[in-house]
Amino acid sequence: MAFSSLRSLISGVGEIGKKAIFGYGWTSSASSLTNLVDTSGVISTDVGGVGTARASLGCSSYGTNKAIFAFGNNGSTQVNTSNLVTSLGVVATDTTGVGTSREVLGSAEYGGDKGIFGYGNTGSRTNISNLVSSSGVVATDTGGVGTSRTHLKAVAYGTDKAIFGFGITSSGVTGITNLVSNSGVVASDTAGVGTARHSPGTCTYGTDKGLFGYGYTSSNVSMTNKVSSSGVVASDTSGVGDARNSLAGSGYAGNLGIFAYGSISSNINTSNLVNSSGVVASDTTGVGTARNSLAAGGYG
Prior knowledge:
This protein has one helix and 18 strands. By secondary structure, the protein is an all-beta fold. The chain has a single domain (about 5-300), classed as Kelch-type beta propeller (Neuraminidase), CATH 2.120.10.80.
């Protein structure tokens, strides 16, 4: 068996790194704080910020063991700045932005070692995307596919693909999804399954599956929707833990996931672990500065 095939069997989707990192977000202002997650799912205390403080950004794994934060809002305007994360979880200083500045977008790994950032708010809703190479280089804009929207999320699935889902369109909250091929091509809309909402979190689990969780309809919810290894979104699963929105999540430890942070009526730092079957655990007492509109990804 070829090494690349063996690695796929062992590692599963790349979002499921050995460890994870939560970064940036909104406290009472934009921040650049990060919190590392170890292989047991324990979140560390705050690490002093690096790079432009911002919120409503995205994060994706790339290169099999690294991550990248990009885009967002610095408290006054949208930006396209990016920050690479090493295999040790060290965040680099700002990289000059590429692509249209925007916020409240989605991001995920695809192709086993690459990333994609898509959709969001440039000042108006958009459906453009930007691919990230296996060396962490962000490409220029790719023309949009699917309904333009904001406040969506994306997650990897099936070892080498991704899916964008949920968000706010010009007509309101939605449950539509868009699959991403292993070459980074975004597909047209798939009719929504599950309760339409915005600002959910996502994480991977079980080596080749994804999970959309929590979010906001006309109020905060704690429901989840599983994504199968073939990219099929399941109907709602009753929620566990605090209903909230604007949280983040990531895979870790090869086949587990974690959701953390977000907003209820105020910012929280609660977390919820996800087992290899996609079952969300009850709330874990928070660690790190409570905040919302942050991003997370796997590394290591």
